[in-house]
Automatic annotation (TrEMBL):
GO terms for cellular component: FACT complex. This is FACT complex subunit. Its main location: nucleus. Residues 444-511, 758-777, 936-1025 are annotated as: Disordered. One of its GO terms (biological process) is nucleosome organization. Residues 621-655 form a coiled coil. Gene3D superfamilies: 2.30.29.150, Creatinase/methionine aminopeptidase superfamily (3.90.230.10), Creatinase/prolidase N-terminal domain (3.40.350.10), FACT complex subunit Spt16p/Cdc68p (2.30.29.210), Pleckstrin-homology domain (PH domain)/Phosphotyrosine-binding domain (PTB) (2.30.29.30).
Length: 1025
């Protein structure tokens, strides 16, 4: 085995040069990490398996590739001295002739005097280099060799000053070369494979069969997997030259569940049985001595609070990874994760750890580069870290049993720092809800929900708009040209600034923004074992298993299950005495549409696109077709409901005011309305939020200040109601309806007041009484405005800690438009453009706008459209359509006054395709000019058919009334209709110009010769003339 040891001189000197460069650079910058050391002495003693990868041994592995026990390394600024046994010194002979001198001092183990002489010589070298000597003071070494050096060094310590150089060695070894990164990446891929492809299946089988298996037994099974060569060979996730002989455990594996969790890497699996609830599994591999780690949390039949807390943890985990860039400090990564927790649910801060990982490499955890709130050391390209975010000691509000009451959540990944976005080596073991969430209570899962969502419930988020004060609304005509020139100059500056910001924001070719969320081939599992198949499959019939969401077809004498999500549709047809039932399946490359298209995972795979079943039992196949259609609808509805509720976050608890009566606003209604009879309630201001109390219902509506994005007060001037509107950062549930906007309002019309008790009405009639009523209404409206405004200001004062201020829409700057289906008044406010009177509401933050585009700006059209593109390119642009053209200058002035860059064009653009192009490669998009293409006259003003397809049809009020009387539906105008309009216009123009009598006589004669149809046409023309 000794003959197999070979030191690589090239690698040794490259890494030694890195160490010397870091040491010298630290001396020049102020001796922060090496403590001003003039020399370095690294001692290793007797080999101990439990301390194989501490700092001193790690330096041996880094430089030499092996651990050399009972060895002393002494570094001066010019030379390296190695004191070791003669046997080990033989392997170091090829290091003598290098760039940096290496002097080897062999000692004879049988002659202790040789060791003493070597130590004395080293001591003289250390003293000659300077007073300060760098050591690893916190590393314990044992054995005769180490004990004698400590004795010799201790006697000379009067003349020397010992400084700790552990931070300097950490900095030297932190940035890894390609070989080191490859080792870390390979180990991480292997860990991900064991977690995703073995552990998840093993866990599912135990839970599904309801076996009683201990955590220790499951950990032992994972432990045995490291020697399974077949498992690693068949995995494409590992590299082609992977050799599991170089694979070893760094820690674990550990399996924990049932309310007792230890979130440290040193945790051990206990002898308790696996509990279906919250399960944490973790492990760490070493590949060629370099460590990589992974841990995942799996939720079995979770409650809503568990799901919500897990989403928050994922958000914090992603925020930490996003913050890992070259130049960032370690504390920035921690603060990014903690900030995500505070933004979503501040109450969870006390459950968040004090550090979220550390540098990883040869050492499993380098504490000098820990991700803690006080560590200011910078991150550099090539560093690798273990990111470990967790929420400990949480309480489940709806536990399945006693063991499920307490739970913890943890995620751990191995990540590489780059100049751009960090690379997650363990991303193959996914952390999304679909991958870690399991439901074994099938009856509850399949049971369809009785509640039907109202069509307008989800529309609140889908459309938003914006506005602000104009600067020149009342300027005279003499200043219009000057104002237009100023506006154009300002817009040019904004466009250039926007272009520059885009290039800085996407400084490198980052590819698709949603690369992590790219479409993947979906896999569905109906049954894990043959025993789960229904009993009726023995009859070889088509069977619909509602619980498993599966259709079982008899093929070649065998029951073959197809998950309902793989079936596109079914069609039934009758031919003679047989009935045919055709199954159409979803498969890649169909080209049917964007929604149906599936990406290829394996180019060599084969797919069934259709399959037909024939039977004489017509009623039976008709029943099967009906069951499949209903099952498909149920599965689609469940998927939509799950997707719709993904962004709903459970708020922190409202802290009620106990010692005094809270500030109240009575007799107000809530929108969106709660179920049941419409009755007024009251709003209360508490310590950290608002509470709406309805007298007819027990469940209150709570809004915490940390979730409030905007607070608006809209007076009843020109409106039928006075209101306070709260726009939220994250949607909440009001009843069973998801909403991002909550509104408290009161009617301001005469119907809301009872005047039957007014005696003066008996004696006063006519204009005097009417005048008095108008005065009374104005007084009431002013009183309502005062009352609501005062309450809104009190809410703002209570939420001052969360930067909540009252915003009032500017009615004088408003313009009408259609953000949804109806024409409403869009009102600019200080920070947003809003429409708060008619649901669905519109609230758009001005800071979120990237650019605005005015469409259909051409002579002759009465209306134009306004499109807002968001800085988050994944959000679809929103449209405010049918804005009167006489309000164009007002809209332009407002956009310019709030520093929103805008462009204009004559046609409606296909924004879905434009945004796909932007998202695909934003760097290239801005490199090619960004949004400047919107300003160019890209469309000719020729009257060809293509431009006519894009243009909008304009009709007069009379024509519109006629068309509405003819048809209730909106009409679409195709090319032929447009062409006929053009022909009619041309013909009327000719008629107005007039023709001479000779030409008309010739036309009439020609019409007479052309037959009955032409005769009718000619007659029509004569009558028209």
């Amino acid at each position: 085995m000794a003959d197999a040891i070979r030191i690589e001189p090239k690698l040794f000197f490259e890494r030694l040069q890195v160490l010397f460069n870091t040491w010298k650079a630290d001396k020049r910058s102020g001796d922060a990490q090496f403590g001003g050391a003039d020399s370095i002495a690294i001692l290793t003693g007797k080999s101990e398996p439990e301390n194989s990868f501490v700092k001193n041994n790690a330096l041996h592995f880094w430089l030499l590739g092996y651990e050399f026990p009972a060895t002393l390394l002494v570094f001066t600024t010019t030379t390296v001295y190695v004191i070791t046994t003669e046997k080990k010194a033989k392997h170091l002979q090829n290091l003598k002739d290098g760039k940096i001198p290496v002097e080897i001092m062999p000692i004879d183990a049988k002659k202790p005097e040789t060791r003493s002489e070597a130590f004395a010589k080293c001591l003289e070298i250390v003293k000659g280099a300077g007073k300060k000597v760098g050591t690893l003071s916190k590393v314990e070494t044992t054995g005769p060799f180490a004990d004698e050096w400590k004795k010799v060094f201790g006697e000379a310590s009067k003349d020397l000053e010992e400084v700790d150089i552990a931070p300097g060695l950490s900095q030297s070894m932190a940035s890894k070369d390609e070989e080191e990164l490859k080792a870390v990446r390979t180990g991480a891929k292997a860990a991900s494979a064991v977690m995703a492809d073995y552990w998840v299946d093993e866990m599912q089988e135990v839970l599904d069969s309801e076996k009683k298996v201990t955590h220790a037994s499951l950990a032992a099974k994972i432990n045995a997997k490291i020697d399974d060569q077949k498992f690693f060979k068949k995995l494409s996730k590992t590299t082609s030259d992977f050799d599991n002989q170089h694979l070893d455990w760094a820690f674990g594996p550990t399996v924990q569940s049932g309310g007792q969790y230890d979130l440290k890497m040193s945790a051990q699996s206990n002898n308790d049985n696996l509990h279906s609830g919250c399960i944490i599994a973790g492990m760490g591999f070493r590949y060629r001595t370099y460590a990589s780690v992974i841990a995942r949390t799996y939720l079995v039949d979770p409650s809503k609070s568990q799901v919500a807390n897990y989403k928050i943890l994922v958000a914090a985990h992603d925020a930490a990874i996003l913050a890992m860039k070259e130049g960032a400090a370690c504390k920035d990564v921690y603060n990014a994760a903690l900030g995500a927790i505070k933004a979503k649910k501040p109450d969870l801060e006390k459950h968040f750890p004090k550090n979220i990982g550390a540098a990883i490499g040869i050492e499993l955890k380098d504490v000098n580069l820990s991700l803690s709130p006080k560590n200011t050391r910078p991150l550099k390209d090539g560093m690798t870290f273990s990111i470990m975010t967790s929420l400990a000691d949480l309480t489940n509000d709806k536990p399945q049993d006693k063991k499920g009451t307490n739970y913890s959540l943890m995620l751990m990944d191995t990540v590489r720092v780059t100049r751009g976005e960090a690379i997650v080596f363990t991303k193959d073991a996914r952390t999304d809800l679909d991958s870690i969430e399991f439901y074994f209570n099938e009856e509850e899962e399949v049971k369809p929900k009785q509640e039907k969502k109202k069509p307008g419930a989800g529309a609140i988020v889908t459309s938003n708009i914006k506005s602000s004060r104009t600067r020149g609304a009342n300027r005279t005509d003499t200043h219009k040209e000057e104002e237009e020139a100023r506006r154009r100059g300002h817009q040019k500056e904004l466009a250039e600034k926007k272009q520059q910001q885009g290039l800085e924001r996407f400084s490198e070719a980052t590819g698709a923004l949603n690369g992590e969320d790219e479409k993947k081939f979906k896999k569905f599992e109906s049954y894990k074992r043959d025993s789960q198949l229904p009993a009726r499959v023995k009859d070889m019939i088509v069977w619909v298993d509602v619980k498993a969401l599966t259709v079982i077809l008899p093929i070649m004498g065998r029951p073959v299950p197809f998950h309902i999500n793989t079936i596109k549709n079914v069609s039934k047809s009758d031919e003679g005495e047989y009935t045919h039932l055709r199954f159409n399946f979803l498969s890649p490359g169909q080209g049917v549409g964007r929604k149906d298209d599936q990406p290829f995972e394996d180019p060599t795979a084969q797919f069934i696109r259709s399959l037909t079943v024939r039977s004489k039992d017509q009623d039976r196949l008709a029943e099967v077709a009906s069951q499949i259609t209903e099952l498909r609808k149920t599965a689609t509805r469940k998927e939509q409901e799950k997707k719709e509720m993904e962004d709903v976050v459970e708020q922190e608890k409202l802290q009620e005011i106990r010692n005094r009566r809270p500030i109240r606003l009575s007799d107000v209604y809530l929108r969106p309305a709660q179920d049941g009879k419409r009755v007024p309630g009251e709003v209360e201001v508490h310590q950290n939020g608002l509470r709406y109390i309805s007298p007819m219902r027990n469940d209150n509506v709570d809004i915490v200040f940390s979730n409030v994005k905007h607070l608006f007060f809209q007076p009843c001037v020109g409106e039928l109601i006075v209101l306070i509107h709260v726009h939220l950062k994250n949607p909440i549930l009001v009843g069973k309806r998801k909403t991002r906007d909550v509104q408290f309002y009161r009617d301001a019309t005469d119907m809301a007041f009872d005047e039957t008790g007014n005696r003066r009405r008996k004696h006063r009639f006519g204009d005097e009484e009417e005048f008095e009523q108008e005065q009374e209404e104005r007084r009431r409206r002013a009183e309502l405005d005062k009352q609501f405004k005062s309450f809104a200001e009190k809410v703002s004062d209570a939420g001052r800690e969360w930067n909540i201020t009252v915003d009032i829409p500017f009615r004088e700057l408003s313009f009408s438009g259609v953000p949804h289906r109806s024409n409403v008044l869009m009102s600019p406010a200080t920070d947003a453009l809003v429409q708060l009177t008619e649901p669905p509401f519109t609230v758009v933050t001005l800071e979120e706008i990237e650019i605005a585009h005015l469409e259909r700006i051409q002579f002759g059209l009465k209306n134009f459209d306004l499109v807002f593109v968001f800085k988050d390119f994944n959000r679809p642009p929103i449209h405010v359509n049918t804005i009167p053209v006489d309000q164009l200058e007002r809209v332009k002035d407002w956009l310019d006054s709030v520093d929103i860059a805008y462009t204009e064009g004559p046609l409606n653009l296909n924004w879905s395709m434009i945004m796909k192009t932007v998202i695909a490669d934003p760097h290239q998009f801005f490199k090619d000019g960004g949004w400047s293409f919107l300003n160019t006259d890209s469309d000719d003003e020729d009257k060809d058919e293509e431009s006519e397809e894009e243009s909008a049809f304009e009709a007069s009020d009379e024509d519109l009334a006629e068309s509405e009387s003819d048809s209730e539906d909106e009409s679409d105008f195709d090319d032929d209709a447009s062409a006929s309009d053009d022909e009619g216009d041309a013909e009327s123009d000719l008629s107005e110009e007039g023709e001479d009598w000779d030409e008309m006589e010739k036309k009439a004669a020609k019409a007479d010769r052309s037959g009955p149809v032409k005769e009718e046409e000619g007659g029509a023309k004569k009558r028209k003339r």
